[in-house]
Amino acid sequence: MSQLPWKPIRLRNLEQQIDQAFDELIHGQWGLCPPSGNWQPEIDIFETPDFYLVEADVPGVDPDEIHVTVEEHSLTISGWRRSGCVEKSAQGICIERRQGSFLRRIPLEQPVDPYHVKRENQAGILRLQIPKQKLSPPV
To answer: Coiled-coil annotation: which residues (predicted)?
Structure first.
């Protein structure tokens, strides 16, 4: 009787699928954008009377690979994170860090000025300051 090599059950994929299902349920429930792509940077959004502040965790992403599009009522952050292994002959034993493309679309309640967005990328955190449009008082 031959024996097959032992392979442990990989529960990581099951955990990721359950997390993704709950994320989609929660985001869809509250009207936020559902995750898409291979992975999603986690984001925080703050609001002041004059602007929105957005912080996105993008460790390992080249700043040149991050694309930000601001429109009157939305923000889109997309990009690409490449594998950290430069050795082509290396075989992965344990791969937990996600890689590949990402895309986040965030609806903004107040109209914003897409031409005066301040952007900073430091220590793997993308920071955006998005000014709100100045609304003229009703006449």
So the answer is: none
Q: Give the pLDDT confidence of 46-73 residue by residue, as tens digits.
A: 999 999 999 999 998 999 999 999 999 9
| Six token digits for residue 127 | 């920071």
> Can you give the pTM of this predicted structure?
0.67
Q: Which domains does the chain have, with CATH numbers?
A: 35-83+99-139 (2.60.40.790)
> CB–CB of 79/66 below 8 Å?
yes
